[in-house]
Specification:
Elements (H helix, E strand, L loop, with lengths): L3 H8 L21 H6 L14 H11 L4 H17 L3 H21 L4 H13 L3 H18 L4 H18 L5 H17 L4 H12 L9 H14 L4 H13 L3 H14 L5 H16 L2 H22 L5 H19 L2
Length: about 325
């Protein structure tokens, strides 16, 4: 099908770990009488494929090949298998199979925004961000036309805009960037009181450091709008620190790193200490403050290890911080 070659080509890019599929509350585990009977005593949506589920849905498709939900549900199972798969090529093949099933569901019902979301999520996991962004844009269009303004719907809309912004960050093509900007600005009209939409706008304008479309002035304005709605948004302070760092305004960058640390949760905080330390060390040449921040980062990384379990990134950051502490000592004792 259309997307299989795209995904298989993206497999070798080694960017297949973007997370699992976020399931909406209205998704049914069972869409056939056989499945209902088999799982009638459970309300759990399983994170991994239960034995026989794919086969059951394949049988359901043979009985009713025009029911799009069966194709979507098989797609979910292949997506989950891909999430569990360790081998890169096999993971890509499973994602490609899932996307083909989602494409069939969309073909049969092109008005279900969740099918576009599911396909977009898989495309994004495979590194096909441009194709994913087009599906997120379609999901946004459909959900804005059909969904009411209850809390669950608002949360879904917000998620779609955030996902869309993530996929369009760093676009090379100016026309594509302007189209993406238009979609996001329309989101501010719908979700004007939701800080997350302004974060999405800020992320889009912030872009990637060295490639693609960027507008730091607009990014700063959007992030400040988010902070006016939620002044405790640690990640926004961090993003502002990053922008001012790129602009080589290091004192201002440190100010925002400090605000990020002030509002951060336990998982975020050691990373923010580490990045502020980098600014002190590499740019402001304040080795005493850098050493203090690196030591605090190491302490918190180790605390997180004990509290939350070992993160794959913790050992790397701990070793890096410890090396920089030695570097600080060398400069301080010269």
């Amino acid at each position: 099908m259309k997307y299989s070659k795209i995904l298989c080509g993206c497999v070798l890019s080694a960017v297949l770990f973007a997370g699992g599929i976020a399931m909406a509350d209205d998704v049914k585990l069972q869409s056939t009488p056989e499945m209902l009977e088999k799982y009638k005593n459970t309300k759990i949506y399983y994170a991994i494929d239960m034995p026989g589920e794919i086969e059951d849905f394949e049988k359901a498709i043979k009985k009713n090949p025009l029911d799009p939900e069966n194709y979507a549900q098989i797609g979910v199972r292949y997506s989950n298998k891909a999430y569990e798969e360790k081998k890169l090529f096999e993971k890509g093949m499973l994602l490609a199979t899932a996307v083909d099933y989602y494409s069939k569901a969309i073909e049969l019902n092109p008005y279900n925004y969740r099918y576009y979301e599911l396909r977009a999520s898989n495309l994004e996991r495979a590194g096909a961000d441009i194709f994913a962004s087009k599906d997120y844009a379609k999901a946004i269009e459909l959900i804005n036309n059909s969904c009411n303004d209850d809390r669950g719907c608002i949360n879904l809309k917000t998620m779609y805009y955030l996902n869309f912004a993530r996929c369009t960050t760093g676009l090379y093509d100016k026309k594509e960037a302007l189209n993406a900007e238009k979609v996001l600005l329309e989101g501010t009209k719908i979700l004007s009181d939701n800080p997350a939409i302004w974060v999405a706008i800020g992320d889009f304008y912030k872009g990637n450091p060295h490639v693609g479309y960027k507008n730091y002035k607009k990014a700063i304005k959007a992030y400040n709008q988010a902070l006016s709605l939620n002044p405790n948004y640690a990640a926004v302070y961090f993003n502002l620190a990053d922008i001012y760092y790129r602009l080589e305004q290091y004192d201002t960058s440190v100010t925002y790193y400090s605000k990020a640390i002030e509002h951060a949760d336990d998982i975020e905080k050691p990373f923010y200490y580490k990045y502020r330390a980098d600014c002190y060390f590499n740019d402001l040449k304040d080795y005493a403050k850098a050493k203090e921040d690196y030591k605090k980062a190491v302490e918190l990384f180790k605390t997180n290890d004990n509290k939350f379990g070992l993160s794959n990134s913790y050992p790397y950051f701990i070793l890096e911080c410890e090396d920089y502490i030695k570097g600080c000592d060398n400069y301080l004792h010269q």
